[in-house]
């Protein structure tokens, strides 16, 4: 205890002053609570999101530290959470709280107000029902999404199972049905006959093709086999004829009244299925028998109805003076046939002489031995001017002529020549 009362009083006074100063410092210290609404410092955020009028600082009676905490006046606008970032001292410094790890989620006050207005004027029970209904819709939406996802999964599994059961394997090779034109060769490559089960290429060494049953010279459907790894499958190979005949025609000149047929105009025809001839117009003979020049259309048709049409010319001349000369030669063992020859000659009368204008020379070869006849067929079969009669063993050949002998054209010269050769006039 001090001997001097004044000094003791002075020390007590200094001590009280320090105590008051400390209290003032403590009073100036504030615990600053950063609300989520205070984090957005942009113009738009300040203008639209913050409603600082709803936030007031409130002290607590039990708070001996002199700190302040910011709270909202309206319960609905309160933060989802708040925390102390630090202590603001009277010197303007902030003492940080090292325990803070993350800030609370920012509150969208505008949305909060909008949500509050939805239930304005409703009772607590009605608000509860509406919120429950909203949660029910959200649950239904989630359930729909889940159902859709489950359906997609089921469909995906179904597609996978179908693909797995029907996927191609080595054993799934298939013979290819082929079509080959009559007269053409069969394909050499095995890839023309088989489609493999896996991939797009055929290993030529792995497949065995058997086409021994196919007749490429006859139209029809035939079977062939493909063998791989001990498995044999059958395919169909079709020989078809879709090629029209190759037809060559010639111009023909006849005298009035002479008969003509489609064959009269044909000089050559080639087709593996044979050629048949017809006029394009069924009334050709009736419409083109008059004297003059006519356009004639010849149609060549094969056995499978493939057609070729060619145009030619028919000239019909005046009949004039017609003479027929014949001569018959008896059977000759050297030639193995008897022969009948005929000249049908048409002459046109002039002032001074008669002139041959058209003629037909015909030969009929008649055989007695069928073997000799068959041999002769090989000689005349390609001659389109000849016709054969197998029943009578006869070959008849006819050709048009414009002169006789040494190019005689006058009647007297021709008449003398033919009579001298043994022909007689009918």
Sum this structure up briefly:
This protein is of the alpha+beta class.
Please tell me about this protein's structure.
A 6-stranded antiparallel beta sheet has the order 21-22-20-19-18-23. Helix content is 26%, strand content 33%. The longest helix is centred in the middle third of the chain and has 43 residues, at 124-166. With 426 residues, it is an alpha+beta fold. The chain is built from 7 helices and 23 strands. The termini are far apart. The protein has helices spanning 5-28, 43-49, 109-118, 124-166, 284-287, 370-380, 411-420; strands at 30-33, 55-58, 69-72, 84-88, 94-96, 174-175, 178-181, 194-195, 208-210, 220-228, 231-240, 246-249, 252-255, 266-270, 276-279, 292-301, 307-317, 321-332, 337-349, 354-367, 386-389, 394-401, 424-425. The chain has 5 domains: 26-114, no CATH class; 122-167; 173-240, Immunoglobulins (Immunoglobulin-like); 242-318, Immunoglobulins (Immunoglobulin-like), CATH 2.60.40; 320-426, no CATH class.
Low-confidence stretches: 30-42, 44-61, 63-81
Termini distance?
A: 193 Å
Q: Indicate the percent of residues in helices.
A: 25-40%
* Molecular shape: elongated
Cα-based radius of gyration, to the nearest Å: 61 Å
- How many beta-strand runs? 23
Helix tally? 7
**Can you list the strand order of the major beta sheet?**
21-22-20-19-18-23
Largest sheet: 6 strands, antiparallel
How many domains? The number is: 5
Bin the strand percentage: 25-35%
